[in-house]
Amino acid sequence: MPGRLRRVMGFRTPRELHGSRRHHPKALPWLPPRGTRPPPPSTAKSISACRASTPATCACRTPRIAPPMAGCPFALFFGLLLVYGLNTWLPTIMRKNGYDLGSSLSFLVIFSLASAVGGLFLGSAADRMGARGTVALFYLIGALAIGALMFRSSVAVNYLLVALAGVGSVSASLILTGYLAGYYPAHARAAATGWALSFARFGAMSGPLVGGYVAGSNLSFGWNFITFSIAGLAAALAVALLPSAREPVVVARAAPQSNT
Fold it and tell me: Using one digit for the tens of pLDDT, what is the confidence trace for 159-193?
């Protein structure tokens, strides 16, 4: 394979991979402590306790990590309940609302396209304004858009509401996952993120079940939108109650001493 084409496609030879290791930046927690000031006693005690325990236990016991360990999984739980519930039942719900099969499937297409494009916009907005506030705001917008679908409107307005629901569910959940991974320190990041995403899968399983139960009951079709709107409001509330992101850990190097 030509070298230029290989680089465009992302392929690397073992020799290239070995040579590129020296150019990869190291994360601050793993840098050797050469010429650095010792950490405060509270931080050193916390690090020693973490190294003596399992990563999951350390993630739950470290100060300022326990609150998001409790809040992030529930936010992702309701977020994935919303995502998978709407992906499964949105065409059926729109058919009960009086649309034919083709129009009902087009709502699902709009939902998916808006969530894909909205992720780019939401990521840029989160970088500028902060991930927590942005995710909470769009979960709220998605919940309100889903609730507004119960009222009869034109097709164009319903397309707009479905697009907002896609951004406020799928895109917001993706940004929340990135916020969660960046919140925790390096020694607890894998355990905390894995725990939250594993718990959130129960929400992914519950979404189609809850939607099927409401759709199969004798309730009016409006209760389908009310149910998923409540899930979006719960996700927005859970994100809003999360503590602010931790301050970055700055490694301060001691000034070199002169020999004079």
Answer: 999 999 999 999 999 898 888 877 777 777 788 78
**Domain assignment of residue 30, yes or no:** no
At position 110, the amino acid (one-letter code) is: I
The total number of structural domains that make up the chain: 1
- Determine contact, residues 196/70, Cβ cutoff 8 Å: no
CA distances from 216 to 25, 152, 246 (A): 55, 22, 45
Q: What is the rounded CA–CA span in Å between residue 167 and residue 141? A: 9
State the CATH number of the domain containing residue 192: 1.20.1250.20
Which of the 8 DSSP states describes residue 170? I
DSSP string, 16-76: HHHHHGGGSPPPGGGS--TTBPPPPHHHHHHHHHHHTS-HHHHHHHSTTTHHHHHHHHHHH
What is the share, in percent, of the chain residues with pLDDT greater than 90? 25
For residues 189-223, one letter each, b for 16 or more C-beta atoms within 10 angstroms of the residue's C-beta and e for the rest, the string is bebbbebbbeebeebbebbbebbeebbeeeeebee
Residue 9 is which amino acid? Answer: M
Under 8 Å between Cβ of 192 and 151 = no
CA 115 to chain centre: 13
Domain that holds residue 108: 90-240
Q: What is the mean pLDDT of residues 223-242?
A: 91
Confidence of residue 9 (pLDDT cuts 50, 70, 90): low
